[in-house]
Amino acid sequence: MKYLLYIIIGIIFIPSLNAQDNPQSVLNDTVVDTKYREDQFYFSVTYNLLGRKPRGMSQTGFSSGFHLGFIRDMPLNKRRNIALGLGLGLSTNSYNQNIQITEINGTASYQIIDGDVTFSKNKFTTYLLEVPLELRWRTSTTKAYDFWRIYAGVKLGYVVYNSSKYRGLPNDIQVSNIDDFNRFQYGLTLSAGYSNVSVHLYYALNPIFNSDTKLEDTGETLEINAVKIGLIFYIL
């Protein structure tokens, strides 16, 4: 993982350093065009859903996600409106639902909270280092700041930390760094919109938990995956 990050950082930043070694007159429109890039910083807010839920599982409250990062824009054509984007980012994602996670002697267990149990909060949260890869199409030019865009791709994620919090009867429970979470997450992404704001979709291709994670009361495998819907804001 460490070497992969070094390679990605090199791809993102080294071209910028090389460009500084070859200054040319900005009065030449052609030169300006050859340096034109778009949408390299992003910030996204998402509503997080859970797919492939087992029987009896439901989401409660609002589950949110916050994502930010940098994407190196690499145009593929002379007009520079078709490009590849490779980036690095961070995200935090919470999922409010009714599966209680407890831990005894380092082993986590999962059980659906009974309907007559009173609780104010039950959620698990993941913190990820993310690598987005996009194929980008847009109607932009060097002088047009408002334009249409469609970006499709994949996003790779590495869970650096996770936690679960329960607030309710008979007592509060908090667990962190649960081994059953899949460390590597990956899924499909789609962003489409106009000007600086776009609708953003993410569909995870692998489950949040490892394949041997099961509910204690039913023995059913937890195959839930993340589905995120929200807005993404592009800058510069």
CATH fold title: Porin
- Give the ordered list of helices and strands: HHEEEEEEEEEEE
Largest sheet features = 8 strands, antiparallel, barrel
CATH classification, class level: Mainly Beta
Q: Total number of β-strand segments? A: 11
Number of domains: 1
- The backbone outline, from C-alpha atoms, is elongated
Q: What value does the average pLDDT take?
A: 88
Tally of separate helices: 2
End-to-end gap = 29 Å
The gyration radius over C-alpha positions equals 21 Å
Structural class: mainly beta
Instruction: Name the beta content range.
Output: over 45%
- Poorly predicted runs are 11-32
Share in helix: 10-25%
CATH architectural label: Beta Barrel
Strand order of the largest sheet: 1-2-3-6-7-9-10-11
Blueprint (SSEs and pairs):
Layout: H1 2-20, H2 29-34, E1 41-51, E2 64-75, E3 82-96, E4 99-104, E5 107-112, E6 119-138, E7 148-168, E8 173-176, E9 184-194, E10 197-204, E11 225-235
Antiparallel strand pairs: 1-2, 1-11, 2-3, 3-6, 4-5, 6-7, 7-8, 7-9, 9-10, 10-11
